[in-house]
Known about the structure:
By secondary structure, this protein is mostly helical. The chain has seven helices and two strands. It has a two-stranded antiparallel ribbon.
Amino acid sequence: xxxxxxLAKALDLDEPIPQAVALRAAVDPIFLRDLIEERPANLATSxxxxxxxxxxxxxxxxxxxxxxxxxxxxxxxxxxxxxxxxVPEAQVQKRxxxxxACPELRPPGQHLIHRLVGAGQSQVCGLCACAIDxxxxxxxxxxxxxxxxxxxxxxxxxxxxxxxxxxx
Length: 168
Ligand code: SF4
């Protein structure tokens, strides 16, 4: 089943999800959480859906796929399991400062999918391709890179040995 119909079913909507909304949901767990929490009766009146930039999507934009959704869904699920707890602001700022000093940081707009969903203004982690502005605000996400101290990552937080890049 196409992702847009899976998302429509999850939201109890009988209408297909517009491509821009589906793409944004597939790469932005915060947007996906807001959409689920809003539970719009229809997308035409949804304030969250209006944040998606449908009019700027070119005709050749990729169709959202279940594979594309996978990372966002996993991030959202991990976050939901702790009740959408926010990251303390001081910790968000510490994470962002570490990213700013990191050689893996990439400038905004390098990833097509981020540009397409209107998140192209955020800098991106070169290791995991996450938008830093989103990643730093999710308590269940982690920096994948080791620091000089093998016990902590470059955010200064305990390393996740299950992270795909943990061995680097
Ligand atoms: S998340 Fe970690 S590896 Fe990625 S840019 Fe930030 S500090 Fe660097």
